[in-house]
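Support reply, case 0932

Customer input (verbatim):
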Amino acid sequence: MSESQFNNLLAEAISSIKSTSFTSKLMSLIDSILTYDCAVILGMRKGKHPIYLYDSIENNRELLFDRYLTSAFQDDPFYKMLTIDEQQGVFSLKDVVQCGMDYQTYCNQFYLQTGWKDELSILIKVEATRWVVIYLGCTQAENTFSSLNVEALKSYFAIIQSLCRQHWQQTEFLLAEPVFSPESYSVKRREFIENALYTFGNDLLSTREKQIACLIVQGLDTKELAKQLGITEGTVKNHRKRIYAQLQVASLSELFQVFLNHIITH
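Our regenerated output:
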């Protein structure tokens, strides 16, 4: 790509700061630096679940997000690097191994199920307790990242870091452009939401816990739940405690965030 083409992409990314099109413009810029098969952008906050911001995944999308955003993120070696070292930059799987992170377990439990073959991670600290993490993945074995790819991306890190800081500093982590267009979403909205409710917590919750979790995210409080299900309020509270533990959340707002991640990415 020529310098003028890169500058045009950079100008578009700068112009899109604080808008919903920022993440797609940012990825177009990164796209001009190296080749990858898919990308994910997450907002990270200490001690809380990641917040979904963007993805370009085509295959096994629901598996990736259902597992990762709910619990697997804690075993992500790049996430561990962030929480332990708080080091910014571009990191490869080789960097993970060199830092002594347990990559093999994560590979066996996660990569083999999602089809990812290789990965680069861009870790950016936007504020004291908030980070943006950009994951670039290869799903084709022949497309694994070379040392030249890593070095090329590192040479542009300062630009990517500055863009992300300008966009997310003093701003809540909010979703990027809608996954579905308004037209298609309006037609399938009810079916879409009902399906998301039906599949929420599939791998972690019992049938009864799923039922209660779905009613909670639809707005029912403990008293209303007990009346509708014909059980005591104490039983509802016990189920709620187990749901929170299984989904690794500590509050109702975190439960809503996990469900929002699920409903958007399912």
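We compared this against your earlier run and they match. Two observations from our side: The chain is about 55% helix and 15% strand. The longest strand covers residues 118-127. Please reopen the case if you see a mismatch on your end.
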